[in-house]
Amino acid sequence: MAEYTLLIILFAPFVGALALIFVSNRQLSLVRGIAAGSAFVSLIASVYLFYAYDPLKGGYQFIQRIEWSRQLGISLHLGVDGIGTPLVLASGILLFAGIFVSWHIKDRVKEFYIWILILAAATIGVFMSLDLFFLYFFYEMSVIPMYLLLGMWGSHTKKYLEMTDAEGLKQRDSVGFIFNFGANSKEYAAMKLVLFLSAFAVAALMGILLIYKFSGLNTFDILVLREQAHFSGPLATLIWLLIFFGFASIAPIWPLHSWSPVGHAAAPAATSMLHAGVLMKLGHFSIIRVAFEILPETTRELMPIAAVLCIFSIIYGGLVAYYAKDTKYVIGYSSSSHMGYVFLGMAALDYISLSGAVIYMFAHAMATGMLFAMAGWVYDQTHTRDIPSLGGLSNRMPFISAAFVIGCMASIGMPGTVNFIAEVMIIVGSWNKYPFQVVVAVLGIVLTMAYLFKMMRGLFYGSMAEKYSHSHDAVTVVDRMPLLIMITVSISFGIFPGHLYSVVRSGVDPLIARITKVVPVAEHPMNLPHATSPTVPTSASHEALAKVTPR
Amino acid sequence: MTFSLTLSVSDLLLLLPELFLTAWLCVILIVDFSFKRIVQEQLAYLSILGLVITLACLAWFDVTGITGTLFGKMFVLDRMAIFFKVMILLATILVILLSIDYVHRFAFFRGEYYFLVVMSALGMMFMTSANDLLSLFVTLEFATFGFYVLVSYLRDDMASNEAGLKFFILGVFAAGLLAYGISLVYGETGKLVFSDMTGAAPTTGLVIGFLLIFAALGFKIGAVPFHSWIPDTYHGAPTPVTAFLSIAPKVAAFAILLRLFLVALATFKPAWALLIVATSILSMTYGNIVAIAQRNVKRLLAYSGIAQVGNVLIGLAAGTKMGTDSILFYLLTYLFANLGAFAVIMAISNAVGSDEIDDYKGLNRRSPFLAFAMLIFLLSLAGVPPLAGFIGKLYIFVAAIKEGLYILITVGLINIVVSMYYYLIVVKKMYINEPLDSSPIKTTGPLRAVIYVGLAGTLVIGIYPQPFLDWAVAATLMFSNLLGPAASIPVPVVPFGG
């Protein structure tokens, strides 16, 4: 049974989606039950996977290999390493939470759950693919459900010139919408998202085809290519650039980010959660899986590109988030800003910083998932996302406002949440190589505080308009559970990061050793005390690291 | 040149599918004339019965490996011919199912309609076996002949008449080019059979002759710059005929193109590869860009068809065994997606009475099944995983990248994104927009059957393509000794046991 864990995680949502096709839309509870049930199976299996993954052994585990096409050299080759495992867990948690967040959807419920299950399953598929073909297959497969989810259940965003503050005065147009050409419909957002992602995806596909041709191995298998394929010179640079920018567009790195906040704003809550929580991580993950694994030398030479671009990601995203007046735009831009930290952690090519980046992906999935879920709740209750016109909602929704504060704290990186550990690791790990970027990153944290506190105050404190006096708090189990799950995960891994850290390190270590050719001097992850206080692993290995990082 | 016309029983066996279908054609006609009370539905099922028996016969040939040539190599029955014949028969069966409801719109000659469809299918079956220039000309004209009538079958409809006239004039012009090209080639080489021509000296006359033949075949497949008849003819023709026209003649013409370029002209590959690359780039780009502006779904599919042909030509430009496999495989995926899409179009046009894309608004609320089917077919045409079209496109790209056709692949990849836009516009109308008229749409049994076949083909090939790939690979084994080492089946190295 255990060896089929990956297949269960991957196919449970697909089976659920397939079963839903044969259920009538009128049997509402059955529809929800099937969706929640299949997501639950996937979640339980991914929790099992996370704890059954053996960090001492490391490498790829739970491997499944099913021959798919002899002529093309493709097999459905699944397996997870220390980097994929936490991301699979995050997808499982967010899918399960997303099913409950969208519990109150009224229109075409069955179709909604079908598409969201397919979306989540496709993202999970990317995190466990060990075959370039299937990596692309699942990657591209996750795009079309986004189109339908945004288009059918999304909401129009207001034209920003028409947006008014509490006194009815026109607000200043913020810089983020210059490139929007005044089009703020959900159809526009959906089409932009699909075309943008597809355009860059085919660039990545070109890179994959070039790898296939010039490796001369007639296989798409990442493990074979990693061992046997060697690329050098301009060809390697070209492939690396195609792969990097092809996948970085979904991450989204500045300046390829413009589809993302628009998409967030138009999407229904559960879709935003999956989009920001896991879909964006497909970019980082695919870069690690393809570029880092197959082109280690080129990665070492070219990764400074990411270090430069991440500065703009962090600052630009943060500034736009500060000036934006739509809750989902704020969270959307904050996500693209925070993804800059992940790029910084990846760019430093260091044991600590890359582990930090991977943990950050997991942490960000929880934090941003919470925020989007609650932004969705506020929108459902008040039918607006315009921050200046909202206020004082904490009287009406004490639970939501308390959870929102926790979500903001997690997003900022308060000690006690897993985000803190990740941020510290990224900052400490990249200090030797990129001190300037670290300064920017710390400024970015200040900026994060500024815009999140601003939004928090704007939504929940101050005076409340009369028309919102009928809004409700989340009181039922169904409404509270998704938030509680994400909060619990975020805090418990913040206090007990031991297993998460050792799992991630077991995936990061061989990768960085290959790229930098520097053996980790820091203690083996298992030698660390098992549930130490959050700062210990980072500071302990920091000194060791200073000796080994190449200057 | 003398033909020995003494046919043995084993020779006749090779012709069995065609002979049987010819006999069945007479049966259809006789039944139509003799039984006054017979209704056209019964004739339709009678035709399908004949086609299915022919299909079974071909399947038997494929399994037992019966192959051979006849009439001094004029007629060849090999695995590739069988593959193409199966595709044509499959398309014809689906088209007849599509027609059953539509035929009520014809005022006259309802019975003859099926006769003409099956006759065209017979012509195209011969076309896939044509192995010299004479049989190429005869079979191609025989196949087109039925279409001239079919396209203008709506006698009182101006658009249908215009379509027929346009198709006829341009078709006859193409036939003239073909005949002239054949005469030039024969004059230069003194040979008619493709396989005898290999190694002929490339004189000016020969080059012009082959260019003219290519132009005539380009007209059949609708590649740019020979595409001008396609949009109007597709628009005006009765919809089942459009569906037939959009797949079967292309399939048959590709059989001839493969034999012509990979057998007769194999030695000049560097020269003609350039020609094919140019045609392919033009077709893809033109088809996709113009499709964006379309308001009528039949015209949209006409232009998308031009672009799809451009995609198939990538495989021909590769010119290897793998390229040939990819063409066969791609045409198979195209068949299911395209005929399925036409089935949905017909179901909607039966209910709404028009083919405008705006009439697809809110289809998801009116008929979730039709909207879902159309979504799958359009996404398969666009090449989105996990549907058949994606595997087809990927196979073609892999075949091409092995030959180093980087520019062609880049253009092809960009075109995927462009095509996604207009397919998604239809998806947007179906799923996102609200319906103008919310009455549910009913579909009839035959149309449903076609949609189910299309869905099954698109999904099964997309999720588990191995048997179909194997079939395509086995069908083109004849090219493996002609064209280099790419034919060998690679076996990837397994890194570790499990």
Automatic annotation (TrEMBL), chain A:
Keyword Transmembrane helix: yes
Regions of compositional bias (Polar residues) in chain numbering: 530-541
Keywords: Membrane, Oxidoreductase, Transmembrane, Transmembrane helix
EC number per UniProt: 1.6.99.5
Annotated membrane topology: Multi-pass membrane protein
Coiled-coil positions: none
Region (Disordered): 530-551
Every NADH:quinone oxidoreductase/Mrp antiporter transmembrane domain range: 181-448
GO molecular function: NADH dehydrogenase (ubiquinone) activity; NADH dehydrogenase activity; ubiquinone binding
Gene Ontology process terms (BP): ATP synthesis coupled electron transport; electron transport coupled proton transport
Subcellular localization(s) per the UniProt record: Endomembrane system; Membrane
InterPro entries to which the protein is assigned, alphabetical: NADH_Q_OxRdtase_chainM/4 (IPR010227), NADH_UbQ_OxRdtase (IPR003918), ND/Mrp_TM (IPR001750)
Record-annotated membrane-spanning stretches: 6-23, 30-51, 83-105, 112-139, 193-212, 233-254, 274-292, 304-324, 359-379, 399-422, 434-453, 483-504
Keyword Cytoplasm: no
Domain of life from the UniProt record: Bacteria
Protein family: Belongs to the complex I subunit 4 family.
UniProt-listed PANTHER family: NADH-UBIQUINONE OXIDOREDUCTASE CHAIN 4, PROTON-TRANSLOCATING NADH-QUINONE OXIDOREDUCTASE, CHAIN M
Protein name: NADH-quinone oxidoreductase, membrane subunit M
Organism: Nitrospira defluvii
Lineage: Bacteria, Pseudomonadati, Nitrospirota, Nitrospiria, Nitrospirales
